[in-house]
Hints:
The structure holds 2 protein chains of 2 kinds.
Chain A: H1 2-36, H2 42-54, H3 57-68, H4 73-79, H5 89-114, H6 117-125, H7 130-141, H8 143-159, H9 162-168, H10 178-187, H11 191-228
Helix pairs in contact in A: 1-5, 1-8, 1-11, 2-5, 3-9, 5-8, 5-9, 6-7, 8-11, 10-11
Chain B: E1 2-10, E2 13-21, E3 25-29, H1 36-44, E4 51-56, E5 59-63, E6 68-69, E7 77-80, H2 92-97, H3 105-118, H4 134-146, E8 152-156, H5 164-175, E9 184-189, H6 192-198, E10 201-206, E11 209-215, H7 216-221, H8 226-231, E12 236-246, E13 249-254, E14 259-264, E15 276-281, E16 287-289, E17 296-306, E18 310-317, E19 326-332, H9 333-336, E20 344-348, E21 355-357
Parallel strand pairs in B: 3-9, 3-10, 7-8, 8-9
Antiparallel strand pairs in B: 1-2, 1-4, 4-5, 5-6, 10-11, 12-13, 12-15, 13-14, 15-21, 16-20, 17-18, 17-20, 18-19
Amino acid sequence: MTETYLAPLWISLKTVIVATAITFFLGIAAARWMAHYSGKLKGLIDGLFILPLVLPPTVVGLGLLLIFGKNGPIGEFLALFNTTIVFSWPATVISAVTMSFPLMYMTARGAFEQVDTHVEDAARTLGASEWRVFWSVTLPLAWPGVAAATALSLARCLGEFGATLMLAGNIPGRTATIPVAIYFSIQAGDMNEALILVGIVLVIAFGALAAIAYWKGKAYKARAMMVNRESVE
Amino acid sequence: MLEVRAKRKLPGFTLDVAFSVNQEILAILGPSGSGKTMTLQCISGLVRPDEGYVNLNGKVLLDTAKGINLPARQRKVGFVFQNYALFPHLTVSQNIGYGIRHLAAKEIKDRVAELLEKMNIQRLGDRYPRQLSAGQQQRVAVARALAPEPEVLLLDEPFSALDSLVKERLQLELQTLHRFYRGNMLFVTHDLTEGYKFSSKIAVFESGRIVQHDDKEKVITSPSNHTVARLVGFKNLMEGSIIEIQGATTLIEVPELGGHLRAMIPKNLSLTTNQRVTIGIRPEYVRLSERPGENTFLSTVDRMSEGVASTNCFFHVNTVGVTRHYIMVILSQLDSCVIKEGQSNYLYLPPEHVVVITN
């Protein structure tokens, strides 16, 4: 009995954690790159990165199917190693990453562009490599924005349904995440099961929100303390 | 020794400068938008000029012809930004230590302590930049730039964010900087007094070019053109033509004064009769006189604006017709109480203070 609820919960948690982590790094890398890129293709690349946010999730799912499917470029390549992505657990991660990436990218890029370039330049004249400038100056200064971006991405990963259904399907115990399981419970007319899953999702969502609020609050407190330790002179 | 050549074309602006600095303090003086800051950025490697060459103490930092362009981090150029650009998330000590991370922990600690003491901010080590006054922030910025022992220190408008009291104290303190910093120093300013106090030489920038680069006294006493003259405080500039040359002095016809003016001929300047020249005199050198004579013009006080220690007076010469050309005179409080608006007085323009500019 508990299997019905624990399996989707476990799959969703795994997917959310792994997908958010991947989106975090991919989104930051893309944001940092585009914040400094000023080539001709800027508009085009920017559009491509944001596309999954604008398209219906089913369309994105179909696109992923075409890429990762048996006859798709990546699908064919993976077939050489006897691996398929479609209808496997990694597909849930790929769908979630694709759908949450635009949010991470857009929000983080905005945060990076807000950082005073003089402060970054100061680090450069002090001998810092681009890598060090990014980790010791840009990222800490953009941190509130990057944290918000991560929270948005996490929420998007947790709620991901359309693309996941297209690419990963509904295999109980393997690819059925909570949103997918809820949909199929309703389809099967099992309202109780659906409501219990909804309850679980609510707990996770509130838990995540509380964690973020606590985390942010801590950051604010640290700042407030910095301000309040006013000069004695 | 720092040798700089830089050309950079932007829409509506072209930078084209060449100069060298030899173990001295150079002030880059010019109005905003004249390319001063961009020049510093070219030296530090934050901006790459289209064409350029930078050589610092024998090391080539930039040579576009040979494809050499060291990144900013390898140039050993200290940069103090106009807004100081301190790292807001690091303490003062961490800010100062940022550029010397390669040293051992003990050495970093000692060096930071040494700089805190030299900059007279010993007790601020644990503070964050937002807890500091503008003056304190500036000291931290200077200490941070000096920590890695740069071979040249660039300061971009170092005093522009400070109120006048703090400014004067800091200027005095920074003048003593060279006691413990023996490299080249370049600083950008749009304020002549600041440039003069601080430097040994002045380079005057105008729309991307250097119009004069000389010892500071030379820039002040014999500006090379109209713009420099205006920038260095010659508020009274008038057109004229040479009537005759008599030994070390010359007589110039100046329509705006409605008469002739005698001036000293600067050394190395050859003048010919009928040559068009610009003459200039600082408002603080014009004097009141009681009787007519050479270089003396009967003028009427048009406006007076009283300052704290001196009064700015605007005169117009009586004999000149419809168009009034004002002569600005700065008088001490004592002198200014003998004149009134609308009253006529003789103005005397001492020949030794009249500057002749040929181009």
